[in-house]
Specification:
By secondary structure, the protein is mostly helical. 73% of the residues lie in helices and 3% in strands. The chain has 25 helices and four strands. A two-stranded antiparallel sheet has the order 1-2. A hairpin with a 2-residue loop joins strand 3 and strand 4 (465-468). The longest helix is centred in the first third of the chain and has 37 residues, at 58-94. The radius of gyration is 23 Å and the shape is globular. The two termini are 37 Å apart. The relative contact order is 0.15.
Length: 534
């Protein structure tokens, strides 16, 4: 009974968004209000509030849990989102995004390789840098401009925008997950690397399967060629992403892994693509760009990567200086949790610096950049409300014992098979909220609690990499959340808008459904095997 009552906020969110088609921010506000009422009245009645709070008032626990959620939502989640979209808006304002698009189109005339380049390569870079729909909208629009059918363009971009999602917006989903499951509430660099590495391991087969599916959907007659390209490109991607995750953290795998995939495709194109059948070629107008023009177009993203890298563990002295300078840290009353935020060490600042300096290089004035930042912030106000409410709801459910009770209920229901179903929980979170970050906010702690209930609290070895069993199970939430992107109404809405397919959301969902089911099953298998077999 307590597990069912505790699950009311999550079920309500699903019913409002899916059943009654209520917008995300309105659903989040209503759900937070209901969660507050449950915390004030149902949690004490059911006796699920943790023992450490026995001397505290329920009102105090509720109030400070909401405050904790609002603080964690703003610093750094919302900060990163605003700065990421700001960086993309600069490229649109200066028209340099057109240069980037054209350069990608001119890289190869082979139809299959070009589709893979735009969706897996450019899409991955956009997801890693900005996220929030850019990786679907831009490649889809380019494909239609090249003569591909709208339905094909929408579906292929949704399929491609999966593996990179967990590390989108400079690693925000994976970072959020690591912070959710960290004992202190703020993950250490080592914990960030461990969670990021586990996500890569759980997705390892999809690094090869996804490019193969993209190529096969483009041209089913070239099976051997498609297998070869998928293996070649997938190997480059996974090696670079694993190294980034293991040695740097969650910020760069999607960005540098996608760049590595692009390089792999260019190498393959140079070595093996020649004298193709004209029907397999895409004819585009050739246009040359000077080195200066190219550097100018890529200055925003190039500088963001530069600042992220020099502030990471790669440059230890700078990393330590930033982590120990201008750090806000205080204990929240009643609940006793510690809030900590580094003003100089967070990814949001690095994106902001790269965006502003790159924008100046591209010809915008500082005043114009600040106006654009303000406009970007205003345009994201509904997203801000949604995330604030969801994080506050998650903190409230955690601190009042609701999350713990749901986890116990799921463990009782599934037993030792729970790890197989762990990715499904993450995919439901993304399906409902449209965001892997939000899915990790909702269910990250639940996965860690379930791991504890299952006795998965020890160190282990997973596909040759040692780490915490708890983090392995928590990582399944992020890996599974990427499969949910294929069915998320928000993601599909972006695809329909980009492809001018209003009213065809259901048709797109029916076409992506088999891929989503396959993705979730593969994730479940990898998570289960990692724990019990390999």
């Amino acid at each position: 009974m307590s597990a069912l009552v505790s699950a009311i906020p999550i079920l309500l969110l699903i019913v409002l968004m899916m059943g009654f088609k209520v917008s995300g921010y309105k659903s989040a506000v209503v759900t937070l209000i209901v969660t507050i009422l449950l915390a004030l009245f149902a949690a004490p009645a059911l006796g699920i509030i943790p023992e450490k709070y026995t001397e505290a008032s329920v009102f105090g626990i509720t109030l400070w849990s909401v405050v904790e959620g609002l603080l964690k939502a703003c610093f750094p989640i919302i900060l990163i989102i605003i700065c990421a979209i700001f960086s993309y808006n600069i490229l649109c304002e200066t028209k340099e995004i057109e240069t980037i698009k054209t350069q990608f189109i001119q890289m190869t005339s082979d139809k299959g390789l070009l589709v893979l380049l735009l969706t897996w390569g450019l899409g991955g870079v956009l997801e890693g840098m900005a996220g929030f729909g850019t990786a679907v909208a831009i490649p889809a629009a380019i494909l239609i401009g090249l003569g591909f059918k709208p339905m094909f363009s929408a579906v292929i971009c949704l399929i491609a925008n999966t593996v990179a999602v967990g590390f989108g917006a400079v690693g925000l989903p994976a970072t959020t997950l690591a912070n959710q499951v960290a004992a202190s509430g703020v993950a250490t660099p080592e914990e960030l690397c461990e969670v990021a590495t586990f996500i890569i391991l759980q997705l390892s087969l999809m690094f090869f399967i996804t490019p193969f599916l993209i190529l096969m959907l483009t041209d089913r007659t070239k099976i051997l060629k498609n297998i070869t390209i998928a293996l070649f490109v997938g190997t480059f991607s996974i090696v670079v992403q694993f190294c980034c995750a293991h040695f740097i953290g969650p910020e760069t795998p999607a960005i540098l892994g996608s760049v590595a995939a692009i390089i792999a495709m260019l190498i393959y194109n140079k070595l093996f693509i020649h004298d193709e059948d004209p029907k397999d070629e895409v004819i585009v107008e050739k246009k040359k760009f000077s080195l200066t023009k190219t550097l100018k177009a890529w200055s925003v993203y190039g500088l963001i990567i530069f600042f992220i890298l020099i502030s990471s563990k790669i440059v230890q002295p700078i990393n330590e200086l930033l982590n120990n300078t201008l750090v806000t840290k205080f204990e929240l009353p009643v609940i006793g949790n510690t809030f900590k935020f580094g003003w100089l060490s967070n990814a949001g600042l690095m994106i902001f610096l790269g965006a502003v300096i790159g924008g100046l290089i591209q010809g915008m004035s500082f005043g114009s950049l600040m106006k654009m930042l303000a406009k970007t912030t205003l345009n994201l106000q509904k997203t801000v409300v949604t995330i604030c409410c969801l994080v506050a709801m998650a903190m409230l459910m955690n601190n009042t014992g609701m999350t713990n009770d749901i986890a116990k209920g799921l463990v009782l229901l599934t037993g030792s098979a729970f790890p197989f179903f762990a990715p499904l929980i993450g995919s439901i979170g993304t399906f409902v909220t449209g965001s892997a970050t939000n899915a990790n906010i909702l269910f990250g702690k639940l996965q860690a609690t379930a791991a504890s209930d299952l006795g998965l609290i020890n160190q282990g070895t997973f596909f040759g990499v040692s780490g915490s069993e708890t983090n392995w199970l928590a990582a399944a939430n992020c890996a599974g959340s990427e499969g949910g992107k294929l069915l998320s109404p928000q993601s599909i809405a972006i695809a329909t808008a980009a492809c001018d397919m209003e009213g065809q959301d259901g048709d797109i969902m029916r076409k992506t459904m088999p891929f989503a089911i396959f993705w979730i099953l593969m994730n479940g298998l990898m998570v289960f095997l990692g724990l019990h077999v390999i």
